[in-house]
From TrEMBL:
This is Cytochrome c domain-containing protein. One of its GO terms (molecular function) is metal ion binding. It comes from the Bacteria. Transmembrane segments: none annotated. Keywords: Electron transport, Heme, Iron, Metal-binding, Transport. InterPro entries: Cyt_c-like_dom (IPR009056), Cyt_c-like_dom_sf (IPR036909), Cyt_c_1A/1B (IPR002327). Residues 17-116 form the Cytochrome c domain. PROSITE patterns: CYTC (PS51007).
Length: 116
């Protein structure tokens, strides 16, 4: 009974950003974006990505497209980029199709904010 009540109470907040759920979404990113600030795997590290300019890390060889885009990664730019990377920055070379679900992107961005 108590559990049912608690679940009922949790429903209204289901739309809120949830970094714990976002961590699970990040499983789709981790093969290329390892959680190590020094590691440059296939993709640049996303530790500290919030507030960073696109293509800003010296030790990663970015495409010209992402450097030229010169955008600041925040909630709204990340949301647009992760929805459809290739359309948002034409010519960048992240081989990832995007996350169509807005709630999943919000959770993921909440998680990215914890990567400092
Ligand atoms: C198959 C490998 C791969 C996967 C999977 C992948 N990425 Fe990337 N990502 C890259 C590469 C490569 C770049 C650099 C693109 C360029 O230089 O044009 C990049 C760039 C980025 C950038 C820009 C970083 C910067 O320093 O400007 C962000 C943000 C990003 N990825 C987020 C994500 C997220 C979040 C996911 C998971 C939903 C993800 N990526 C999945 C390979 C990947």
């Amino acid at each position: 009974m108590a559990i049912a009540v608690m679940l009922g109470l949790a429903v209204p907040s289901a739309g809120a950003q949830d970094a714990t759920r976002g961590k699970a979404v990040y499983e789709a990113c981790i093969v290329c974006h390892e959680l190590d600030p020094k590691s440059t795997g296939q993709g640049p590290t996303l530790i500290g990505v919030i507030g960073r300019r696109s293509g800003a890390l010296d030790d990663f060889r970015y495409s010209r497209a992402i450097v030229r885009a010169n955008i600041v990664w925040d909630e709204s730019t990340l949301d647009a980029y992760l929805a459809d990377p290739q359309s948002y920055i034409v010519g960048m070379r992240m081989p990832f199709g995007g996350i169509p679900d807005k709630a999943e992107r919000a959770d993921l961005i909440a998680y990215l904010k914890t990567l400092r």
